[in-house]
Amino acid sequence: MDSCRRVVATPTWLCYIAQDFAALAFVRAKEVALPLPGHSRGLWDWAQDIGRLHVSETAGISTGIAARYATAVFDLAREGKAIKALESDVATLEAAMAESADLRTLLTSPLYSREEQSGAISAVAKKMKLSDTTSNVLALLASKRRLFVLPQLLAVLQDMLSEERGEVTAEVTTAKKLTKAQADKLAKTLKAQVGKSVTIKETVDESIIGGLIVKVGSKMIDTSIASKLNALQNTMKEVG
Length: 240
Fold this sequence. Notes:
By secondary structure, the protein is α+β, with helices and mostly antiparallel strands. Helices cover 62% and strands 10% of the residues.
């Protein structure tokens, strides 16, 4: 184990990845629920010792970390026949992050100590009445200074849950919030295109002016007015 630590400790990002694999190996060796920090020794201690991940790390690494944790959490929920509880937890956390600037700051600010983050996120989980599995993974993320990956973690879980239901998630950006009738019509149109039920995940961004930006998997359709104006501007430059 010491020789492995020396190998991964030089390239910082490799160290981070090794740290998370160690923690997840510990998670996967769990009995029923994700372990709370300090409940065991061995791999956990090694994972705690090897490096730190800062908010400035690349989005690619953050997404990779989130995907590994999401897989562990989803497997636990499936094994415990708690998929419905996980769906509820994900929806609750996503709504809270959208509504609370304080929560978003808690997740990303380096000004909070490890202990402060751990205490605050535990209080949040208790108040939201999250399941034990979700509460424990939040505590694990806080103890390892990984709370900033929570948005990506929830996004990966949403995709996994949609696949479990035989659905796909469409990320839709609009200039103003869709009405229920508009959202239902869009979902029906997309279902005809992809052949599966579609769940709309909407983001409002006034800067696109009008139209829609729709992303389903690796495919994206951009009918926003802002995009059309940019295309027109580029065409005018070429003509000029």
